[in-house]
Structures are given as C-alpha cells and as structure tokens.
Design a protein that fits this description.
This protein is of the alpha+beta class. Helices cover 39% and strands 29% of the residues. It has a five-stranded antiparallel beta sheet with strand order 1-2-3-4-5, with helices on one face.
Length: 118
C-alpha cells in the first residue's frame, strides 16, 4: 500500500511540475490550493475557470505514457473525459477545457472591471 501511495505522490508532483512550466496559464484557472489532492495515478484540482467550475483530475496512463483528464462538477459528476494527451499538449488541453473561451479577452476585461468596482 505504501508503495502505491508513494508512486501516486510522485505522479502528482510530476504533473504539478509540468503545469508549473506554464504558470501564467494555470494561474488563470482559479485553483484552490486547499482542495488539491493526490489521487490514484495523479492529482485532483479544484478550479473556477470561465468554462469549467469544479474538479479536474489529471492522471498518467503509464502503459501508454499519455495523460487523461476528467472534468467533474461540484457534485463530482463526470462532465467530460479526455484521454490520449501527450505531455506537450497537457497544459493547453486543460486550458481549452477550463478557461479559454471564444471571447476570452472580453471576458477577462469584464471580470477585471467587475472586481475593481467591488
């Protein structure tokens, strides 16, 4: 059991290191650090993006050496599952499903105006 726990922690740290290479992108997802946790073969985050609000599970399919993403609602119901993601596409795939909407620049401007008024 301890070996699995250690391996899951290693995989979660590996995934986090990949995400941090694009810190300017992941900062926009509204990650709640208090809800981040290690799961089997990866990690789970809670996000508050423009496209997805809820949980995101990122796991590594070690046999295929590809990542899988599961988007979960606040009630932990599966919203979307994406598999066969290559390492160099992981952050962009996450961003396209969490944050990057069609009118992204406009939404950011509106959000910034709203937060300045408050």
């Amino acid at each position: 059991m301890e070996n699995n726990t250690n391996r899951n922690l290693e995989l979660a740290n590996y995934i986090w290191e990949i995400l941090k290479t694009r810190i300017e992108i992941i900062m926009s997802w509204g990650i709640d650090p208090g809800k981040a946790r290690v799961i089997k073969n990866g990690m789970e985050l809670h996000v508050m993006g423009f496209l997805h609000k809820g949980f995101v599970q990122i796991t590594l399919n070690e046999g295929a050496d590809l990542f899988e993403i599961t988007l979960l609602s606040e009630n932990r119901e599966t919203v979307k599952f994406i598999d066969s993601i290559y390492l160099d596409c992981l952050v962009n795939t996450l961003d396209e499903n969490i944050e990057k909407c069609e009118n992204y620049e406009q939404r950011v401007s509106e959000y910034l105006r709203e937060t300045q008024i408050s």
